[in-house]
Structures are given as C-alpha cells and as structure tokens.
Amino acid sequence: MFEVDRDALFAIEQLNKAYARCLDDDRLEDWPDFFLEDGRYLIQSRENRDAGLYGYILYFENKGMMRDRVKSLRVANYYNLHIDRHLITNVDIVGAADGVLDALANYAVIQTDAEGRSELFSAGEYHDRIVFVDGVPRFKERLVLLDTANVVGLLAVPL
Amino acid sequence: MHGADGHHDTRDNSGGLVWPAEGFGRVPFELFTDPAIHVREDERLFRGPHWSYLGLEVELPNPGDYTTGYVGATPYILVRAEDGGLRAMVNRCAHRGAEVVREPRGNARGFTCIYHNWSYDREGRLTGVPWEAGRDGVGGYGPGFDKAQHRLQPLKVAAHAGVVFGSFADEPPPLADYLGPAIAERLAAVFARPVMVTGYQRHTIRANWKLLYENSRDLYHAPQLHKFFGAFGIVQPQQDARAEMWHEGTHCLATIWQDKSGRKKRIKLEEPGVATERSSLPDDIAISIIGIFPNCLFTLVGSAFSVRQFRPKAPDRFEVLYTYFTYADDPACLREHLLQNNQFGPAGYVAMEDAEVVEKLQARIALGADKGASLLAMDGGDTTPDRIDHMVTEANLRSMWRGYARFMGFAPPDPRADLAAG
Ligand SMILES: [Fe+2]
Q1: How far is A90 from chain B (nearest CA, A)?
Q2: Is the pLDDT of residue B3 over 70?
Q3: Prediction ipTM score
Q4: What is the CATH number of the domain that holds B250?
Q5: Which among A23, B60, B143, B375 is least buried, having the fewest CB atoms inside 10 angstroms?
Q6: B212 C-alpha to center of ligand 1: Å?
Q7: How far is the CA of B347 from the centre of ligand 1 (A)?
Q8: Hey, is A65 helix, strand or coil?
Q9: A156 domain-assigned
Q10: pLDDT tens-digit series, residues A100-150
C-alpha cells in the first residue's frame, strides 16, 4: 500500500491554498509560476475523459501558453466582471514514481457577479502531477476534471 | 391597439407579428423575449418543414450505437439500425411520456422505459409491454391492444457527407435541395477525408438562441469585439471573403480564403500554434462558418473544427452541444486542432466574448425594451441579398431575418410604409 509522506502532503496542501488565494485575489500574473516551464494545464469534462476523448476546454502545453492566457485576459478579452472563490478539499497523494507525485483534490468555485450575486460556478476534481524543485512543489500537470461539464456563460479565469 | 408612446401593437390575429415598416434592417426585440414566439418557433421551425442537425455518422459506426440530443424542445434518439441505416425517434415513451434513454450515447440492443418497462427495438417499434394480456387472469390491455399503434415517434432521417439531419415533416424537401448546392459542396469537400470526433462540450447561454445564430454570421463584429487577434498581431485574412445565403436567407455559408497578399504575420503569442497560419481546409480556405437553419453551426477555422447543435430552452436561455472533430488520417492535425480549439468553446479566446455579449444584450432587452428593435442597416439599408463579397456588411443578417419571418408566418414589411418612414 502506498504510504503518504506527511511533509509532502503538507507542502501540497499549502500549494493548493496558495493557488486558490492567487486566483481569488486576481493575481493572475503569478498563476503560471505554480507550474514547471513545461508544465501542462488542462480542463476537461468527466464526460469526455470517461469516453476516452480529448475535448479540452483549455489545452495548455507549457507555461508560455499560461502567460499568453493571462496577457489576453488583461489586455484583450471582454468577459464577465466577477469574483472567484475556490474551495479546495480532500487533498491527497495517491502515487509516486520517478520523482513525480500523483495528487488529487476536490474543488468548488463560487462566482460572485458585479451586483453581488453568488452562484456555484464549477465543481470537480484536480488531478495533479507534482514535482518538488528545491523543496518547493510545482505542477508538472494540473488536469481540472469538470463535473460541471455544462459551462454556464463563459469560463475566462483559470479554475 | 395604440400605446401611449404611439407604437402599434405588432400582433395580428393569428398570433404572429407584423415586421416593422422599416424592413429587415430592424429586428423587434420581442423576437428574443416573447414566450409565444418561442412556442411558435418550436412548432414552425424545429417541428416544421426543415432539417435539423442530429449528429455525425462517424459517431455511430456499429449497429446499436446511439446518441441523444434535442431538436428544439423535443428530445431524440439517433441509432444505427441492423441494416446499417440510421433511425431517429423521439426519446419519449409512447405510454406515459417518460424518458426512454438517459445516457447521452452508447450501444444498445433496444430501449426500455424505466417507468413500466415498455421496451422498444432499434427501429423504435414497441416490442414488450409487461402484463399486456393481464396477470393471473385479470386486467391487462385486452385483445384490442395493438403494439404497432404505440411506437416511439419517428423523425425522417437523411445524411449528406456524413452529416446527419432529421425532420418532423411528413414530406421534407430532399436534403441536398434543402442545404443548397454551395453548402452541399462545401460539406462534401470538408468531409472528403475521414474524420474522428475528439470530444464534446456543453454550453448554456442565458440569451435567446437567435442572438448567437445571428452573431455567427456577423462579419462586422469579429475585428471589433475580438481583440485577441489585434493584441497578439494575428492578422486575420479578410480581403477575400464571401457570404452566400440559402434557404430564404436563413443558411449562411461564410468563407474567408487564405491571405495571399504576402503580409507576414508576427504572432506575439509564446505559443503561436494557438493561431497558426496553416489550414487543414481544402481549396485554400482559411475559415468557413456554415450556419444551417435552424439548429446547426459548423465552425471550421484552420484545424479547429466543430459543429454545434443549438438547443433552445426558453426565450432567454439555450444550450449548445459542441462536437469537436479533426481529420483522422493526419496525426499532425490533432495537436494543431487541440491548440487552436483554445480559441473556441465557452473558454475560447474568441468565443467567450460572443457568449458574454449576447447574455448582456439579453439582459438589456428583457424588460422595458419590448417595443425596441435591433438596427441592421449597414450596406444597403434594407436589402436582403443572397451573396456578398466583402465583410463590411449587415446585409447577410437581414437576409436571415427575411427567411425567418417568412417561415414564422409573419406579415412582411410594407414597402410603401418603408418609404413614408423616411
Ligand atoms: Fe464573435
């Protein structure tokens, strides 16, 4: 049976807290730095994954694509004014091989619009591949697996 | 009836609508908000003498493979039958109206309603009724009961170039005639190579479905609203463009050919593959947007291919099912496809803005603006041509409304009143 390293688990829980706070505080410019330079960020519905399909809502192969996203949101895109609130729970490490930890977490994102109305925007699971660089955990891959496959409105800011 | 503001009541006795005297350069907002219009659309458009998109043949390779979806408000099952042909039927039990199939897609020998276990074969024929002849000598439906009279309601089905359509009409027009030669040829060219489905995406938009259907052919808005292109130095080809309208103006085949001016793109994305120059489309086409009335929209840009099924739910809400596909015979296509798809869908660099714009527009016209109208006067005022060879126009939108009004049975604008209106 796989034995969870308590220090690694604590570090990954801290990583998730920092990730949530970064996005919820609208510090989008800091978001790519949670990833390795060749890290991947993917959003996919459970429906597609279970069918063995791709169907990514966002498909970012490297950190450069994440910086592109942030720049586009800042200077180009027109999207809904809102606040995000990430609730991340059930963080766990489920496997380890060749210096890469496989971790899971549940998430829910509550969105509040410009007139103060809050709604559950998205729920699902993070499937993470994590590498420690100089003792600091970084995402080699973060797959956002959506239960909420039916996106209401639009999805601009990363989950 | 005259309101205090001097506007006429635009309804005639049939429950229809008299188009504003200014012509199709004006589109009454009530078309996007009125529940009676929504009901009338379901009767006249989605269950009328039209063909609606049901799926792609490649989704159903084997007998028993099925998908489900909606034509307007009506849920359907599309299934590959024993003989290799396709059948479509309403996903509503002939007994009490319950849901028969609940999985979005799969493979089945037949279909059984969960409520009283009425079962149907792949043709939609009723094959099993528990206690049909009674139980222990009592009850049952009796000898007069004929299962052949109680099947799942069928739709007519036809396919062109692997694209499957269905119709509730008893005698719909031949599909090729319905599409028109230009769209039929374009679909044949695009589907001349084998394709594979790469995924699905569901999207709910809190607006009237026609606002997005209209937006998809709006060549005026693209460089104005979608700043992604300009911000990253992505020069969109727009010299060589054409919009061809068919089916009384309601279909639109928009084509933008590759830029041959020799202008060099200096894409300032760290990953330029998101907006690459290479196109997988035939005949030097860079972009092809094909709206097939009433529920189908192909977006073919470079290697980012998708077809959308529009599913109206209420006057101010609709859903879209995206089916993404790419060429199966070129592995390089797949990565380009995945990268470029970042432009489309509910999170797309380009498409997110269309969703946002139509939702905010809907919120503005929902109350207090019911006597207002949209203005579509660019490029000819009230003309409704069937072909335009540039992008500086709203005429192809007007053409859509001309056909829509006709199919909805609305009285056309009065040309004499148009002159008087000045
Ligand atoms: Fe657009």
Answers
A1: 27
A2: no
A3: 0.96
A4: 3.90.380.10
A5: B143
A6: 9
A7: 13
A8: helix
A9: no
A10: 999 999 999 999 999 999 999 999 999 999 999 999 999 999 999 999 999
